[in-house]
């Protein structure tokens, strides 16, 4: 398939980098600073060099991407809340032109799920969004193949930054601020880590899961969310005496979404360590499926985008 | 899709039972004793009652299944080795009639993979075989979506009977024969448990995985297999002193297949307990994905069959 990529951050660049390996062609990559467009396939290496070198990804006009002949739009611009713009309109324009949309941007499917599905219903194109939940871990495709009706709940750890911080607090007996600083030094936490540590990032993912299970009905405001900023080191010590630890656990069912720090058995499945993520998918007929892996990262998330591209139907 | 099911054991019956829930229709179910056939959809409940009650699943001729109008043949007859008959010929006949084949029977894809793919290449039908590896756990679809070229190895526990026995030996300090008897009482091990305890069942699954990674080239005879019958209780005690335990671990790469009892960290991912299975899928760009869940059982395996049916292309 021919891919038009919006977003030239870690994910967008990794998708461009790996697309050829999966048998696809990049006809455009753009962000707010510029665009590289070529209907015969752009020179990916040079576009990435320009961007990584501090220049615009190309000299073209980002607006021109929508005039290009592409099969699937990869929406990898930063997640925004509320009206989920400009990501939502990017997806809308592609669908209205009967193109497919593969999202790595959580905003449209967390905040405006039913609106997006309504536009998809009128389009020859389809939306897929595996990359919005759990990075490299195949969560949504597992639910899709099980059929959502057969899935009763999804629970797990879907934010690697928060999980890393809690793992390190427990392992070293250090307090939150200290470990946060360490995480930022390592690049595991951003300069502004708010959405990771206050539970918003995890909540967006579990809202997306609830929308998939219930076919819509949820947005971030519907989620009951508590972050990890107030977890004291002493709570982890106390938990350890009882063979437990604390993780930022989320849960999505057809009835709603909750995210918060929870006690979990120290050696249990939910006590993933470091930046690793895990989902437990509860099913009607097949018990509990656990998928764990790397929940974030450019190449990791790109593999989810490219898995989705592989599952798009012919238009 | 309209399903013709060959095999009326746990798996065949569960597929018939759940097919409606997944939106599919059963037009035939047959085994060596008889067949229930109706192009408008059989009465599944009555067919299952007959079979479970000790009668034939129907009064029809099993041969007539191939004359029925169906979209996908579900091959759920017992796994056989070597020439993989009659399962192989069942699949061949369906493909030669341009129908799809969904296998729960390991024989054709473990022992005659390239032969089957060659027939598929000449057919408008496709083969899928998620149910042959890991029951409810989506292993092959995960590899397919990642693209097999991006997967370097698959490792794990894929036999629940052997895993249950080792778990109980370690937990209770009991010897192999004692725990085997317990497993048979619980229905976790068959009256003839040979293929489970000597590693053959696990090896067939890892051979199938190696065939997927390398696009053929392997059969059971190529696998290096050691079972659990000679693991003494003392080995597990010794392992425990070192924070480890023993599991029957298999590994498939493009270079081959090995199955045998291995030391693993006691609280690590590979030390799944009871009858649970786990696969670790090593990928080029996304690190290690772990999928665990129920590796066997009628409904569990049926969900894998029905996931496959959902992923069949239109003919």
UniProtKB/TrEMBL annotation, chains A, B:
Domain Glutamate/phenylalanine/leucine/valine/L-tryptophan dehydrogenase C-terminal residue range list: 2-52
Q: Which residues bind L-homoserine?
A: 190
Q: Does the keyword Oxidoreductase apply?
A: yes
The active site lies at 205 (proton donor)
Which top class of enzyme applies to this chain?
Answer: oxidoreductase
| One example of a Gene Ontology biological process annotation | threonine biosynthetic process
What InterPro entries does UniProt report for this protein, alphabetically? Glu/Leu/Phe/Val/Trp_DH_C (IPR006096), HDH_cat (IPR001342), HDH_CS (IPR019811), HDH_short (IPR022697), NAD(P)-bd_dom_sf (IPR036291)
The UniProt GO MF terms for this protein read:
homoserine dehydrogenase activity
Protein's UniProt keywords contain Oxidoreductase: yes
Q: Which Enzyme Commission numbers does its entry carry?
A: 1.1.1.3
The UniProt annotation places NADP(+) binding at: 7-12
> A Pfam family in this protein?
ELFV_dehydrog
Q: Where are the stretches annotated Disordered?
A: 288-315
* Domain Homoserine dehydrogenase catalytic per the UniProt entry, residue ranges: 138-309
- What does the similarity note say? Belongs to the homoserine dehydrogenase family.
Protein's name according to its UniProt entry: homoserine dehydrogenase
Q: Which species is this UniProt entry from?
A: Halosolutus amylolyticus
């Amino acid at each position: 398939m021919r891919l038009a990529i919006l977003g030239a951050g870690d994910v967008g660049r990794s998708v461009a980098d790996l697309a050829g390996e999966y048998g696809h062609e990049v006809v455009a990559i753009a962000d707010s600073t510029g665009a590289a467009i070529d209907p015969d396939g752009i020179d990916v290496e040079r576009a990435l060099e320009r961007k990584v070198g501090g220049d615009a990804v190309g000299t073209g006009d980002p607006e021109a991407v929508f005039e290009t002949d592409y099969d699937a739009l990869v929406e990898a611009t930063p997640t925004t809340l509320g009206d989920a713009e400009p990501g939502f309109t990017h997806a809308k324009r592609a669908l209205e032109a009967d193109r497919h949309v593969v999202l790595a941007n959580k905003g449209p499917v967390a905040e405006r799920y039913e609106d997006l599905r309504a536009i998809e219903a009128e389009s020859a194109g389809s939306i897929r969004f595996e990359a919005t939940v759990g990075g490299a871990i195949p969560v949504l495709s597992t639910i899709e193949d099980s059929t959502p009706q057969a899935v009763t709940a999804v629970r797990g750890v879907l934010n690697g930054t928060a999980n890393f911080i809690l793992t390190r607090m427990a392992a070293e007996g250090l307090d939150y601020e200290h470990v946060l600083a360490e995480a930022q030094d390592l690049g595991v936490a951003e300069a502004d880590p708010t959405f990771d540590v206050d539970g918003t990032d995890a909540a967006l993912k579990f809202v997306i899961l609830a929308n998939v299970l219930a076919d819509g009905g949820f947005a971030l405001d519907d989620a009951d969310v508590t972050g990890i900023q107030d977890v004291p080191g002493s709570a982890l010590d106390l938990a350890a005496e009882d063979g437990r630890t604390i993780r930022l656990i989320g849960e999505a069912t057809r009835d709603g979404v909750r995210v918060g720090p929870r006690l979990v058995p120290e050696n249990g499945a939910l006590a993933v360590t470091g930046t690793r993520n895990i989902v437990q998918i509860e099913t009607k007929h097949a018990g509990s499926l656990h998928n764990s892996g790397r929940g974030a990262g450019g190449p990791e998330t790109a593999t989810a985008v490219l898995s989705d591209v592989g599952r798009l139907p012919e238009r």
